[in-house]
Amino acid sequence: MRLVWRLGDAAALLLLLAAHLVAAFDPLSVGIAIGAASALTGYLSYRDLYCRFAECCREEQPLNASALKLDLKEKLFGQHLATEVILKALSGFKNNKNPKKPLTLSLHGWAGTGKNFASQIVAENLHPKGLKSNFVHLFVSTLHFPHEQKIKLYQEQLQKWIRGNVSACASSVFIFDEMDKLHPGIIDAIKPFLDYYEQVDGVSYCRAIFIFLSNAGGDLITKTALDFWRAGRKREDIQLKDLEPVLSVGVFNNKHSGLWRSGLIDRNLIDYFIPFLPLEYRHVKMCVRAEMRARGAAVDEDIVTRVAEEMTFFPKDEKIYSDKGCKTVQSRLDFH
């Protein structure tokens, strides 16, 4: 039975490819090819058949909130706020049949706290191929927008890129990394796409998702976390309301945030400012264990402890937080 199924799949794929080759010349042949493929695989529409062999934009596909929750819980360590807000924001947005604007998230915290990892988890739960998907687009400030004298050119290119990709897939995801290294003004080029417009030049952006990643505000987040620790309060007691207002104002007034005096903040177009807390010793150990499992190795607690103890911690006296988060865990583990 399995062999017959595989033969059916293979035949369907060949017929589908043949349909593409003759499409420009013989519409009747296309219909025959699709009909034959449907007979082999059971009734399938042309789109359903095509999407069995190629990536398709599934605009109406619901979010599997349980899978996202499990991914965040098992893979993102020490970030109760980020886990809670990302899950609620995405679930609410994807369940909304008629969103009035795109979902825009701004993730803040020091390097190694999990911002990139969280964006990767989000991408994989929205489009199965994750960062390799044709519908997930990653921009790195120092790579894609390096020259200050070319700001106008970058703005025009960015608008064209986003317009073209949202036209092709309404549920496209755009991730902007290293926002704190982005020249001021560039990001405001996408302001019309993030605003409360049903359409802009005939294109609706209301189902797209924009994610900003930035180190800006890391000092403000650390100060709040440290204040809680010194007061004898658990980090899990920190709530979004303790940090989000401070973050938005701090980033708006920070010349090196990429959002300095940005209309995106001024117009309240960023839906959530999500803080990533500095990681403690216990969280670094969790990262080491996860990396060992990812490599298919048995977890050796002696090695876990040695790798964690090689990291440096701050402040100087208390030594509570890893100054690089979990960023160097992979390279350090290579030595053991």
UniProtKB/TrEMBL annotation:
One BP annotation, GO: protein localization to nucleus
Disulfide bond among keywords: no
Keywords, ordered alphabetically: ATP-binding, Endoplasmic reticulum, Glycoprotein, Hydrolase, Membrane, Nucleotide-binding, Nucleus, Signal
Keyword Membrane tagged: yes
TM region positions: none
Any Pfam family hit: TOR1A_C
InterPro entries: P-loop_NTPase (IPR027417), TOR1A_C (IPR049337), Torsin (IPR010448), Torsin_1/2 (IPR017378)
Locations listed in the record: Endoplasmic reticulum lumen; Nucleus membrane
Similarity section: Belongs to the ClpA/ClpB family. Torsin subfamily.
Protein name: Torsin
Gene expressing this chain: TOR1B
